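assembly run, all chains below
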Amino acid sequence: MRLIVARCEVRYSGRLEALLPEALRLVMVKSDGSVMVHADTGGYKPQNWMTPPTVLELERGGEPAPDEALAPGERHDDGPVTTDVAPITRIVVRKRAGSTEDRLDIRVVEVLSDVVHDMGEAAALEKSGVERELQELLADAPEWCGEGFRLVRREWPTDIGPVDLMCRDATDGWVAVEIKRVGTIDAVEQLTRYLERLRAEPGMADVQGVLAAQQVKPQARTLAEGRGLRWVEVDPAVLRGEREPELTLFDV
Amino acid sequence: MRLIVARCEVRYSGRLEALLPEALRLVMVKSDGSVMVHADTGGYKPQNWMTPPTVLELERGGEPAPDEALAPGERHDDGPVTTDVAPITRIVVRKRAGSTEDRLDIRVVEVLSDVVHDMGEAAALEKSGVERELQELLADAPEWCGEGFRLVRREWPTDIGPVDLMCRDATDGWVAVEIKRVGTIDAVEQLTRYLERLRAEPGMADVQGVLAAQQVKPQARTLAEGRGLRWVEVDPAVLRGEREPELTLFDV
DNA sequence: ACTTAGATTTCGCCG
DNA sequence: CGGCGAAGTCTAAGT
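ok done. output:
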């Protein structure tokens, strides 16, 4: 990873046109070709960036140095890039985008710091609490979606995509369950499209629909109810047995 | 901005639980409180992060150093943080998230580099080419949405949100125009919902719908046509008068 | 290669 | 502060 702190002006042209006036910024170049331009404020997002695959081009004192990118050649281990060569004056990042080209043009006025670090491979992130896990938990305990529900199968196929859970309810009626982390209007639309298809199947004319989510937005509740669909909020911690179900609807 | 290159293990708990095993990473701390943990690969996204507002807590050699964050005190100008104090052993980032707390816990095993840079304010970004501009261009030239179209008003209010453009067509009929950069199935659903509401209004029973986008996806075209909606692809460069309209529908 | 759906989406606007 | 729509969304998975 190469970290360049520099006063620079940045132009992006591609899906849109953007100009960052001259200011002090961090230019981060990853070994996978990612380039990000960060200001000291502005939160999570880089002010400008380019995702891989990219082609980098560096200029020093007006001279192109096409082979230099992450490993500047002057040294092999970590640390500051030596300054016994002309300073960087321009970094151009290119990327093929269909028939056109995305381009990030960084005009470097002054370099305050320029270091390279060999970080090796960083192990991947393990996470839990995403929609996939919610689906697994509800597949093991479908009664949280509705009283007496029994799972028939996960990922029930339709020609417009799989229904998350297909269940039978207490009276053996079919129920399609759509699972989201956050239940929005889009989730209700999606569930509606599934039911539209499913009800055309033989024996499925009466299939019901349930939206199960960690959080169901008010507008989604209203739309669901208006369409005769049910919705339910589920708590992953409760499903995992880590917490007792709430007895009240709201925290006091 | 503080840049710490360190071997570290990172735990996030909040909206989900995540663990990054020990590895070399960059920890970026912005003066607005943003914290991002980047690996050398993985592209645009940090492996872990916390958006402002946050509270930071640093430990050195097991001792908490609560007042240290961006300006470590040992120095005032830019550059490496002096190493005549015990090395950082832990960084805890906290954030209130409703009734609970989001927490990023960085256990630091080895610090390879730790520098602070004062970057001042970076001027804001100017951009063009997004949906807003498309709406402005089409508002000035609604005939690109359909022959004889005249604009009645932009952002026509409904109780489920504003319709981008409300027009009259060549025969004085109402037309609702939904504008997207990329026209997907969602855009057709959105337009459908607007029409559902609008047609309930007096005098609007026959309002037509048009989806106007720089690019309309095949599935969106099919869905729109199936619902009696029209769609049209528009080119911002042509709207701006920078380019002649294509005489063929497809590039050869 | 293209499309679809999820994301700790983030971000900005407007109530 | 919450809800909703847009984003250069990005990214992973499926076809």
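Residues 72-76, 248-252 of chain B have pLDDT under 50 and may be disordered.

Chain B touches chain A through 56 residues (CB under 8 Å).

not gonna interpret more than that til we talk
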